[in-house]
Structure formats: structure tokens, C-alpha cells
Amino acid sequence: MGWNSGAVSIELRQQVLNGPGLLSNVALVELEYPVYPRTLKKQLLRKLESFPSSALLPAPHVFITMENVIIIGTGCAGYTAAIYTGRANLKPLILSGNMPGGQLTTTTEVENFPGFPNGIMGPELMMNMQTQAEKFGARIEYTNVTGVAKTPEGHFEISSEDGIVRLARAVIVATGASPRHLGLPNEKSLIGHGLTSCATCDGAFYRNVPVCVIGGGDSACEEASFLTKFASTVYLIHRRDSLRASKIMADRALANPKIKPIWNSTVAEYLTDEKGEVRAVTLENLVTGETSELELKCVFVAIGHVPNAAFLGDLVDKDENGYILQTEGTRTKTEGLFAAGDVADHIYRQAITAAGQGCASALEAERYLADIGVH
Ligand code: NAP
User: Fold this and answer.
1) What domains are there in the chain, each with its CATH number?
2) Residues 76, 162, 198, 241: which is the catalytic one?
3) 239 CB less than 6 Å from ligand 1?
4) Three-state SS across the chain?
5) 333-373 pLDDT tens trace
């Protein structure tokens, strides 16, 4: 497997058939430098002997994994990369992240993804992509990646919240972006207590009460329109006097009698009741400087997203907003590390452009693996 030098930490999996194909008893083994296949086996067996006997029943089947390609993220970019690398027989492993399916799982109808003239629900689109990726041999493991490092041999060591360190020859980062917040002092603690970034998830809890959406983009308009199904009034609070959203979505929102735009304004403070739930916001008019209180039951923050790239350290260069800088196509400054979708795209940020980049990253990863003599 080419692990004949360098300090490596190797994922050791004991696959015990204690159910229909269940994978259990996962352990990490640190092996010392240098590691040759024969001494490697001896070291693994020595480590296994130190496990409790219950962990060894029945006779263990030991697999050491060096993946061809690990795809981090399960949004449009990640699943498309998985479909293409799967069809190239690379047997990709996908690590799901905290939000399997990505941003589209928090949206309702997607009207602009080609091939669906009547639209398709976001979660359904993502489930279809997952099924399609699995059909071509992609495997999904549900964990959140915490770090990526390059070993002296040029492999990637991927750490994650499940405690497993996985190894791969190539990595496609398709981790997307997470909702941005205003940065007010009590904001994080109010998430789930009258503050959210997902109307689809939380809108139905706020029936016949006033709510607000902060932002002026497509997300804000979409969330506001959706919330009119439940709320009595939806205040659309925007810091300028015109919306950034596409014309069709802006027109649809502004034509809705339940949506009341509040222009040139920002939320300066979240106010809570005795139970710690949001009861109102302090509005600041950015033109006049005046402040006022607006009573409502929930704040939907829709002011854009922050790319999820912090776990990559200095393996990638980023722009001033944290988006990964691609060098050529989806390549990054680190050989074998590719970035696709919203984590690297601050311009288009569409489901279809993310899918396109996922495809490109898969083709480039395939070429890279061929160049290093793997495939
Ligand atoms: P966006 O287009 O970047 O809009 C963010 C909005 O939040 C802007 O109006 C911005 O104000 C405002 N904002 C940013 N920081 C703020 C702050 N600190 N305080 C107050 N307001 C702040 O983000 P998005 O709406 O999430 O859309 C992202 C991408 O996804 C876009 O390309 C969009 O077209 C796409 N999208 C498409 C659909 C769809 O087609 N169905 C749905 C949702 C999103 P300014 O306008 O002043 O900058």
C-alpha cells in the first residue's frame, strides 16, 4: 500500500459480524516509523491482543483503509463529485458533515435546477443525489471532519469527531457554507429560542404571530414568502432601501400583503422575555439614527453564509471572506486537495454551479490519481 516510510496513524477496523453487516469496534492504532507491510501486520496483531476479549469475538476481520478519494461534504458539490468518482470506479468515501444533504435540505421548492420543470423539493433532490452516488459505489459515513493534514508521503490524514483518523490519496472539500449571524452578544444563545436561520425547519412553530426576516437577498425573500403560510406578519428588515434578491423573488415577496419591509434598518439588540425567548428587537434606522422596539416572536437571520473551511488550516489559501482560493479549475495550492461548491464560490453559489464544480473536482482528482500512478 506504499506505507513503507513516515509516521502514520492508521485506522484499524475490526469488522465483527454481529448483525447484518454491522461495522463495530473501531479503534485507532498509532504505528511507529518506519512501517513495512510485514511489521505492520505484527504490530496490528500485538495491538489487537491488548483489546478486551469481548472486542475480539468472533475472529476479527481486520481492514486497514487507504481511500483513493475522500469527499468531505454531502451537498450538491459533494454528491456530484461522488457520482463521478464512483462511476470512475474510485470507490469514493463521503464524510457527511453536521448537516447531511447540505443547504438544500433546509429549503422548500427548488425551481431552477435543470431537469425539473415543475420544481423539486430541496430534501428530495438531495436524497436523489445520495441514491445516485450510492448506486455507483460511494459510501457515506456520518461524521464531522475536524482537521486535514498531509503526511510526508503525500497522503491526507483526516481527523473527525468520531475519533477515527482516515487516510486518503486525494481529498475533495465540498463543505459548503453555514449561515452568517449578526454577531450580537446574546445571538448564539438564542438559537432555538426565537432565533433561527431556517424557515423550513422552524416556521411552523410560529403560527399567527409576528416574525421578522433579516436580509435582502434571495434567501431572505424566500424565507419571508414561506413564513407567510404561518405568521400573522413577516417584517423584512433590510439595511438598504432596495433588495439584492433576483427580481422574480423580490417582486414575489414585496407583492405579498403579509410581508412588511422595513428599509434602511438593522437589528441592534434582541430582547427576551422572562423565559429567555425572543419577544422583540431593537431596530436602528441607519439613515436617521433613530431606534425603536418591534415586538415579534421569532427572528429569521438570512444575511448570507460563511464558508466552512477553517478545519483545513494552511493547506489552502483563502480570500478575505474565508472562501477557498482555487488555483486551476478546482485545484488548491496543495496537490491532491480539491475544493468544489460554496466553500470556494463566492460569486454564483447556486445548486447547479456547485454540482458543476463537484463534477470538475472529480475529473481533476481522477487525473491526479492517474498521474501519481494509482488508478
Ligand atoms: P446574499 O445574496 O449574500 O444576501 C445577503 C443579504 O444579507 C444581503 O441583502 C446583505 O445586504 C445582507 N447582509 C449581509 N450582512 C449583513 C449584516 N451584517 N447586517 C445586515 N444585513 C446583512 O445571500 P443569500 O440571500 O443567502 O443568497 C446566497 C446565494 O444563494 C445567492 O447567489 C442567491 O441567489 C442564492 N439563492 C438562491 C435561491 C433560489 O434561487 N431559490 C434561494 C436562496 C439563495 P446588502 O444587500 O446590503 O449586501
Assistant:
1) 7-59 (no CATH), 65-179+305-371 (3.50.50.60), 187-301 (3.50.50.60)
2) 198
3) yes
4) CCCCCCCEEEEEEEECCCCCCCCCCEEEEEECCCCCHHHHHHHHHHHHHCCCHHHHCCCCEEEECCEEEEEECCCHHHHHHHHHHHHCCCCCEEECCCCCCHHHHHCCEECCCCCCCCCEEHHHHHHHHHHHHHHCCCEEECCCEEEEEECCCCCEEEEECCCCEEEEEEEEECCCEEECCCCCCCHHHHECCCEECCHHHHHHHCCCCEEEEECCCHHHHHHHHHHCCCCCEEEEECCCCCCCCCHHHHHHHHCCCCEEEECCEEEEEEEECCCCCEEEEEEEECCCCCEEEEECCEEEECCCEEECCHHHHHHCCECCCCCECCCCCCECCCCCEEECHHHCCCCCCCHHHHHHHHHHHHHHHHHHHHHCCCC
5) 999 999 999 999 988 888 999 999 999 999 999 999 999 99
